[in-house]
Amino acid sequence: MTRTLFAASFVAALGGLLFGFDTAVISGAEGTLQVLFDADYAQMADIVANRTFWHGFLVASALIGTIIGALAFAKPADRYGRRQVLVWLGLLYLISALGSALAWGAWPFIGFRFIGGLAVGGASVVAPMYVAEISPAHYRGRLVAMVQLNIVLGILLAYLSNYIISGMSLGPQEWRWMFGVEAVPALAFTALLFTNPRSPRWLVANDRAEEAARVLIAVGLNARNIKSEITAISRSLIAAKKSLGARFFQRKYSKPIMLAIAIAAFNQLSGINALIYYTRRIFEMAGAEGTSALWQSVIIGGTNLAMTILAMAVIDHFGRRKLMLTGSIGYIISLSATAVAFYAGVSGPLILVSLVIFIASHAFGQGAVIWVFIGEIFPNALRARGQALGSFVHWLMAAVISLTFPMIAEVSGAHIFAFYALCMVGQLIWVLKVMPETKGVPLEEIEQKLGII
To answer: What is the number of domains present in the chain?
Structure first.
């Protein structure tokens, strides 16, 4: 692997790290924000007469931005280039971090978190796209996986950062530091992007074949193969243009569409985003105090990272269904145990153990499988739109879960975890009865199995 390829992939992967950090950082401060912005929530109650709803809306505001960002940045990436759009996303991360830290009320905070959500949504699409397009085929899987791995690492770093800041005795301004610290990696990400080459695919699409050739050589392609590679890129661009005319929502593609919607919806009906966004609150509901609750969040983040690495190592050996079956059973056991603990008023270690099993089940199952599976079930001409559909459903459900969690948890922590457990029983039945295995199956055979061809 050349130095240029590694450095460019590493910098792009920072977009994934910021994605994870921005997603999880609010977990350490949302309880403080609920108290701090209570007067603002009271004024908002003229619109919806429920202060807890508005706190859920504040927490979910980044996810609303994510839904829009995931849909909005693909076309600019084609027009202005992947690297240029990543620079814009870095600036959005920076604005969001500083704005959230300096927010003077609930509405400004919601606005700046929404901006961060736009960056998260855009990064979820553009960063993997950029890495895939600069990587030679024999490195592509590992380097694209590095972006996904950095998302999980970013979640862990957010939890760890919150824990460290909470121990610094910063008083009422503690929450501002939790958000503001993200400005440092955001600034580094934005500056380092200017050292990255542009995507060869984008350069060819914009009649800059000579520059594309130089980039391909820099990332490790043999100079003798440059002409054939550029020809192959040109052909794929022509095919992509033709595929835009294919109608997506039609009966022929109903099976992959329903599979994508189902796996994306089940992903969030597990309650994973409730855990990521409200980790500290959940542990405090179970009796843990501030710093202890934050340390337990770090344990959750560490488990998530370790099990993600393990799942990446075995997914092509065990297959997608086995990982989903294992994850579904782990979900049901852990969520049921958490619900029973809350019903019985049991606190402490049982909740921690149950949620560690939960996050391990997610990382080993749904977290590892969802995007691989969605990418495999759609034919080439529709794959990008299939991924976009899955991403939209995923983030929409994430926003709904994050919005509703505080309202339901305020009534009963047990009820909400029992509901998630019931949903995972539904997922287990879906995996057993409906989900096809795609491991090692040629894409044409998958299309035949689903009745597409």
So the answer is: 2
- Is 151 part of a structural domain of the chain? yes
Q: What pLDDT sits at residue 49?
A: 65
Alpha-carbon span 267 to 427, nearest angstrom: 9
Looking up residue 355, the CATH number of its domain turns out to be: 1.20.1250.20
170 in the same domain as 47: yes
Contact 15, 196 (CB under 8 A): no
Is 438:374 a contact under the CB 8 Å cutoff? Answer: no
Q: Which domain holds residue 288?
A: 250-453
CB 54 within 8 A of CB 106: yes
**Is the confidence at residue 135, as pLDDT, over 90?**
no
Residues 276 and 175 grouped into a single domain: no
pLDDT at 179: 96
Helices (H), 25-81: 30-36, 38-44, 51-72, 74-80
CB neighbourhood size of 382 (10 A): 19
* pLDDT for 244 beyond 80: no
Which H or E run includes 220? Answer: none
Say what the pTM is.
0.86
Q: Give the model confidence (pLDDT) of 262-320 as tens digits.
A: 999 999 999 999 988 888 888 888 777 767 888 888 999 999 999 989 988 888 888 88
